[in-house]
Each structure stands twice: as C-alpha cells, then as structure tokens.
Amino acid sequence: GVQTCALPIFTDGENSHGRGFEAFQQDYAQLPEDARAIPVFMILFGDARESELKALVKVTGGLVFDARHTPLYRVFKDIRAYQ
To answer: The pTM is what?
Structure first.
C-alpha cells in the first residue's frame, strides 16, 4: 500500500539564528515535488508565535495544531486523522 508521511514540528516560532522566512521559501521551492508533498504540521506550545507558523504551513501544505490548550495526545490524534 501507499505509505503516508508527515512531519510534525514542535516550535515556538522564534527565529533566533539562521535563514529567514524568505530564504526558506526560496529553498523550499527548489525541493523535488515529492519532498514538497510532505505536509508539515506545526505544534504550538509555550509562547508560540502563531502568525509566523501559520505563514509557514501555508507554504508547506500543513496545519497548525495548538498544544497550549489541547492535550498532546489529542493533537497527535488530530494530525493522524488529517492524513
């Protein structure tokens, strides 16, 4: 059968070092189509910057899930249901 893949990322959205968002967008656009087909799910926690993460998942085809107000087991269940 076909195996699905997703990439969950835990982050606060703070870019403290490295490439900026524009550089990421340019690099991401250069990836092979099969790599760009993998949805990236951002899991908010702590003082996460929701607006930045929503912009990122818009580029990567994923979603933002909020673990600040939802138990983590439920977030992973929701991610699995999305696939």
So the answer is: 0.72
What is the full DSSP assignment across the chain? -PPP--EEEEE-----SS--HHHHHHHHHTS-HHHHTS-EEEEE-TT--HHHHHHHHHHHT--EEETTTS-HHHHHHHHHHH-
Which DSSP letter does residue 18 get? S
pLDDT tens column, 28-54? 999 999 888 888 888 888 887 788 888
Single-letter amino acid, residue 41: F
β-pairing verdict for 7-11 and 40-44: parallel
Residue 22 amino acid letter: E
